[in-house]
């Protein structure tokens, strides 16, 4: 079965950096676009970034452009989110996602807290 396991979250000061990882299993990782979402307290879940199967095409929501970088290692079945210049508004639970014909699959999420 599809499994997505996020890690790398934590507490960081404004301007700091974190690198999130999402280890995937149970499907052919290299065949699927991978996504990172986040959900802040009291807000809807929002798409942060996605990356194409080979990593050649990426998308970022406007609020993270120039600060976040999504990447993937198909040999390790892992997708990453490098987050630099973190701001308090980046505080959220971050989720890894894959969309297959059977539906959307999510990890358990990893908490990122940016303190000022």
What is the terminal separation in angstroms?
40 Å
Q: What global shape is seen?
A: globular
Provide the structure class.
mainly beta
Q: How would you classify the quaternary structure?
A: single chain
Low-confidence stretches: none
Strand content: over 45%
Percent range of helical residues? under 10%
Major sheet characteristics: 7 strands, mixed
Q: Kindly state the mean pLDDT as a whole number?
A: 98
Count of beta strands? 11
* CA-based gyration radius: 13 Å
**SSE topology string:** EEEEEEEEEEE
Treating each run of at least 4 consecutive H or I residues as one helix, how many helices? Answer: 0
Write a structural description:
The chain has about 120 residues and is mainly beta. The protein contains no helices and 11 strands. Strands 2, 4, 5, 6, 9, 10 and 11 form a 7-stranded mixed beta sheet that branches. The radius of gyration is 13 Å and the shape is globular.
Features:
single chain; 116 residues; mainly beta; 7-stranded mixed sheet; 4-stranded antiparallel sheet; globular
In brief:
The protein has 116 residues and is mainly β. The protein has strands at 3-7, 10-13, 18-25, 34-39, 46-51, 58-60, 68-73, 78-83, 92-100, 103-106, 110-115. Strands 2, 4, 5, 6, 9, 10 and 11 form a seven-stranded mixed beta sheet that branches. Strands 1-3-8-7 form a four-stranded antiparallel beta sheet, with no helix packed on it.
Give the topology, please.
Elements lengths: L2 E5 L2 E4 L4 E8 L8 E6 L6 E6 L6 E3 L7 E6 L4 E6 L8 E9 L2 E4 L3 E6 L1
Parallel strand pairs: 2-11
Antiparallel strand pairs: 1-3, 3-8, 4-5, 4-9, 5-6, 7-8, 9-10, 9-11
């Amino acid at each position: 079965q599809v499994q997505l396991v996020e890690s790398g979250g934590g507490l960081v000061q404004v301007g700091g950096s974190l690198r999130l990882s999402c280890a995937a299993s149970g499907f052919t990782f290299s065949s699927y676009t991978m996504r990172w979402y986040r959900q802040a307290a009291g807000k809807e879940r929002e798409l942060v970034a996605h990356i194409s199967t080979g990593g050649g095409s990426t998308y970022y929501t406007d609020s993270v452009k120039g600060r976040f970088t999504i990447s993937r290692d198909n040999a390790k079945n892992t997708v990453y989110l490098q987050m630099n210049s973190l701001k308090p508004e980046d505080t959220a639970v971050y989720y890894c996602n894959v969309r297959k014909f059977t539906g959307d699959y999510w990890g358990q999420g990893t908490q990122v807290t940016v303190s000022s």
